[in-house]
Design goal:
- The protein is α+β, with helices and mostly antiparallel strands.
- The protein has 9 helices and 12 strands.
- Strands 1, 2, 3, 4, 5, 6, 7 and 12 form an 8-stranded mixed beta sheet that branches.
- The protein is globular.
- Bound molecules: (R)-mevalonate.
């Protein structure tokens, strides 16, 4: 029997990095997915094939011996196998470019958790899938806030904080997002570690930035709920980018992309960890095409995306 699931990628609209320190973030799921198919096998092996590589190993190895970016999938398969005499074959098929802040790894953990659990149980709740996915993500990124896996599980637009979890945002705002990719891959863990160093070096600055970000997110939640005008929302995007500059997760390429996005649309900022990866520009029908054209004229890969309201899907 095959068990198959898929989960969407994500964009962090506001609050990345600060969410690791308890500030609320605002995220949405996007219409690009990772699908995972799992199947029990008779050889006692866990084998994983994906577009970022493959691995094959016996179950019950110490995780420290698994030197592969596919470790989260190995972890979940091994945990579910327990003492049963079975192997698992896992195949990952992703539409989300890896390592660029669009949630490829979180979507893979969520879809993988659901597909693997599905081999052992007839029914599972989204909460159960999410818990396993977050544990799995922690095997490669111990300090994760859990925000990415949460939005990949439930879809839509949501606010999230580490203590209270998520809240669905019934947004009245009508906006388009243009995502531009720097094509610079980076590890979320190392960018997050850099921010931690800044916090340790200059606690007062970091705490002031956290309060500003928190106030900004509250204002944005208000704007989204009342469906207020998009240029005001764009100004908040621009302000959030200043905070990301201040914590050192930008670079020349990202600054150039943000400059183009801010000139052509209502506002643009890094999304996700930064250090490379993607930015998004906030647009509507009046400036969407112009924004896409300008990124392309400047040789940046970009696409316009819509929000995924489905979240985790199991077949
Ligand atoms: C990465 O997509 C988002 C960060 O805030 C890390 C996290 O929330 O775990 C940088």
């Amino acid at each position: 029997m095959k068990s198959k699931s898929s989960a969407p990628g994500k964009i962090i609209l506001f609050g990345e990095h600060f969410v690791v320190y308890g500030v609320k973030a605002i995220l949405c799921a996007i219409n690009k997915r990772v699908s995972v198919t799992a199947e029990k096998t008779q050889d006692a092996k866990i084998s994983i094939t994906s577009n970022i590589g493959s691995m094959i190993s016996e179950p019950h190895k110490p995780l420290s011996e698994i030197a592969s970016p596919l470790k989260p999938l190995y972890y979940m398969a091994d945990k579910m196998i327990k003492d049963q005499n079975t192997g698992i074959n896992i195949v990952v098929d992703s539409e989300i470019p890896p390592g660029v802040g669009l949630g490829s790894s979180s979507a893979c953990c969520v879809a993988g958790a659901a597909a693997i659990i599905g081999l052992f149980k007839r029914e599972s709740s989204r909460e159960e899938v999410l818990n396993l996915a977050i544990q799995a993500e922690k095997t490669i990124f111990a300090n994760t806030s859990g925000a990415d896996c949460t939005v990949c599980t439930y879809g839509g637009i949501m606010s999230y904080d580490k203590i209270n979890g998520f809240e669905v945002i019934a947004s009245k705002s009508n906006f388009n997002l243009v995502v531009a990719n720097s094509n610079l891959e980076r590890s979320t863990e190392s960018v997050v570690a850099g921010v931690k160093q800044l916090k340790e070096r200059d606690g007062a600055l970091f705490s002031a930035l956290c309060s500003d970000e928190s106030k900004l997110v509250d204002d944005v939640l208000q704007l989204l709920k009342t469906g207020s005008n998009i240029s005001e929302l764009g100004q908040k995007v621009v302000r959030n980018q200043r905070h990301l500059e201040a914590i050192g997760v930008s670079n020349d390429t990202l600054r150039d992309m943000v400059k183009i996005g801010q000139r052509e649309s209502f506002g643009a900022k890094i999304t996700g960890a930064g250090g490379g990866g993607c930015i998004f520009a906030l647009a509507d029908s009046s400036n969407l095409q112009r924004t896409v054209d300008k990124f392309r004229e400047n040789n940046y890969i970009c696409f316009s995306t819509s929000i995924d309201f489905k979240g985790l899907d199991t077949f």
